[in-house]
Amino acid sequence: MKIIDLEPGDPRLAVEILPVLRELRPHLSEELFAEVYAEGYAQGLRFTAAYGDDGTTCLGVAGWRVIVNTSSLRKLYVDDLVTAETARSGGVGRALLGYLEDRARALGCHVLNLDSGTRRTDAHRFYLRERMDITGFHFVKRLGRP
After folding, report:
1. Quick one: pLDDT at residue 96?
2. Is residue 32 situated within a structural domain?
């Protein structure tokens, strides 16, 4: 498995990364994904992909950023973590999470965290197996249409 970071404008984003990311974020069109990454990149958003041994099959995707705040001080926040349905239970999620942990340490982060939808029980089992703790609730107030 090969894990790589992708910059905005990389043609692999639309062709190889987006189909996997849409398994988690089905609302993303190619145009919207490009817009989000272009704007988010300036805010620290990055995308990392895990590829199979052939180097052309995207097996998993992580969207992440470093955030500095008063509660965690410096943390790596995972916006998106998804393994292609055809590659689940094959170590892809573990490899991506391990890569992100290494990046977090290298970037001086004290914490790696993410939010997960309450219905994603398979993902929760995975996070708990990976020794992540449930430390809080995430509250949302919708302010209008996205």
Report:
1. 97
2. yes
Q: How many domains does the chain have?
A: 1
Distance CA 97, CA 6 (A): 16
Compute the distance between CA of residue 16 and CA of residue 40 in angstroms, rounded to an integer: 20
Residues 117-139: b if buried by 16+ CB within 10 A, e if exposed:
eeeeeebeebbeeeeeeeeeeee
Q: By mean pLDDT, which of 21-30, 54-63, 134-143 is the weakest? A: 134-143
In a domain, 144, yes or no: no
pTM of the model: 0.90
The DSSP 8-state label assigned to residue 102 in this structure reads H
CATH number of the domain where residue 93 is located: 3.40.630.30
